[in-house]
């Protein structure tokens, strides 16, 4: 029988979007903007398993790029503003969209990694061969 305390299941999406611990949903996941804390201050979960890799950046590029480029095409087709207006609109939009999405998407991918017990692949060692 396991002696670890029971934690009711937390939605990975809710934990991710709030940037909270994937196990208890209460402790903070980050100690900086994108730096992961060593462990949860609420339930003590060791965050050593976390390896989000480039996944969050890829999703941010795809989502923010699609939205900003679609809006830029729409503005160009509708009003045909000069290039400086495009620069004035889309440079801040890209910064806000990418920086605003990066942290919650990274936390959500970490929460799904925890829920699905995702880990680095390992080869089995067969005994007797």
What does this protein look like?
By secondary structure, the protein is mainly alpha-helical. The protein has three helices and no strands.
Q: How far is it from the N-terminal to the C-terminal residue, by CA?
A: 33 Å
Helical fraction equals 40-55%
Largest sheet properties: none
**Uncertain runs:** none
Radius of gyration: 20 Å
**How would you sum up the global shape?**
elongated
Output the helix-strand order: HHH
The total count of helices amounts to 3
* Mean model confidence by pLDDT: 91
In terms of DSSP E residues, the strand content is under 5%
The helix/strand class is mainly alpha
- How many DSSP E strands? 0
Question: Any descriptors?
Answer:
mainly alpha; elongated
Secondary structure elements and their pairing?
Elements lengths: L11 H6 L37 H25 L3 H33 L14
Helix pairs in contact: 2-3
Describe what is shown at a glance.
The protein is mainly alpha-helical and 129 residues long. Helix 2 (55-79) packs antiparallel against helix 3. 50% of the residues lie in helices and 0% in strands.
């Amino acid at each position: 029988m396991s002696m670890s305390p029971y934690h009711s299941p937390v939605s990975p999406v809710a934990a991710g979007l709030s940037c909270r611990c994937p196990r208890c949903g209460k402790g903070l996941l980050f100690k900086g903007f994108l730096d992961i804390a060593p462990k949860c201050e609420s339930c003590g979960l060791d965050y050593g398993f976390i390896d989000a890799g480039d996944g969050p950046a890829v999703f941010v590029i795809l989502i923010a790029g699609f939205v900003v480029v679609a809006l830029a095409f729409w503005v160009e087709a509708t009003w045909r503003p000069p290039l400086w207006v495009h620069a004035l609109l889309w440079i801040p939009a890209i910064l806000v969209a990418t920086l605003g999405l990066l942290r919650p998407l990274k936390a959500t991918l970490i929460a799904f990694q925890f829920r699905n017990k995702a880990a680095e692949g390992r080869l089995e060692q067969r005994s007797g061969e």
